[in-house]
Amino acid sequence: MTKLLEIEGLQTHFFTRDGVAKAVDGVSLSLDRGEILGLVGESGSGKSVTGFSILGLVDPPGRVVGGRIVFDGADLVAGGERMMRGLRGRRIAMIFQDPMMTLNPVLRIDTQMIETVRAHADVSRAAARERAREALVRVGISSPDERLESYPHQFSGGMRQRVAIAIALLHEPDLIIADEPTTALDVTIQAQILSEVQTLCAEAGTALIWITHDLAVVSGLADRLAVMYAGRIIEAGPTAGIIARPAHPYTKGLIESVPQGKRHGTLLKQIGGMTPSLLHLPRGCKFAPRCPRADAACDPEPPLAEIAAGRGVRCVHPHLEAEESAAS
Ligand SMILES: Nc1ncnc2c1ncn2[C@@H]1O[C@H](COP(=O)(O)OP(=O)(O)OP(=O)(O)O)[C@@H](O)[C@H]1O
Ligand SMILES: [Mg+2]
Hints:
The chain has helices at residues 47-54, 76-87, 109-120, 125-138, 144-148, 157-169, 187-204, 215-219, 239-244, 249-256, 321-327; strands at 5-16, 19-31, 36-40, 62-71, 74-75, 92-95, 175-179, 207-212, 224-229, 232-238, 305-308, 311-313. It has 328 residues and is of the alpha/beta class. The protein is globular.
């Protein structure tokens, strides 16, 4: 069966006064129906711009300058805004970090949800309201009738995000792109929402791209991970394999900087150095200046090479399984 989403060599650049910031520079990834992909990386690595590019929401001075985004067989880059308008909200939905990106502060929840339903479905107001009510129940909002008549400011942050998720689910989209939607919430509420979204996606067969800088959050949720660095994917593959045996030195560094019970009492490792400025990227491998394994072989920049089935690494000196077992 064809993939639900296939991105090949995506390049999204920002043409600023100081130069061209290549926020996304050659990203390739694919997603099956119902699959959950965790898109992970430090701040500024290009995660959000990747998500916005899929939805056609990149504003000037930014522009998709290269690559293909094929959704269910249709090329979204070639199809342009007209094609996107037909898909956005209906077949591809987005959940933002700030639910107020989705919600209108001056409209009651029922008004907003009914409008959203009727934008893409030819149904009566009553039927649209019923669908909205069901969506609120699905995301765990009690007394939905009362809640429908409330304004966004009458909800807590966690509840507002639930409403935004309910709106994303209204049309049972094929794909949801969630950009750090739980980062601003309490850890307990974050965990609740994560597991609920996971269940909802499994029930509806919805594919999910969960964007986060927090590897711990996504490792319990995603089937596969794609790790971004300086606008590129530097490692991708099944979650369990990457967490257990990260191959790229950057991924390894990220994992070692996550607090874990079994390493209690030992100092957390940190990745040395700083994220490079996109306007002054080093030659060759973009991680080389911070990498303990870097040498002359790291220039030119290596491609994302397959080291095992479904497992890609952009590194000439990856941590390989054989070497790990030799060391232990
Ligand atoms: N409007 C813009 N104008 C100029 N450059 C931009 C703009 N938006 C993004 N960029 C560039 O793209 C880079 C990647 O941004 P992006 O928002 O995708 O990062 P991110 O990985 O989502 O980070 P975070 O974890 O902080 O959300 C930024 O560091 C910046 O250089
Ligand atoms: Mg972001």
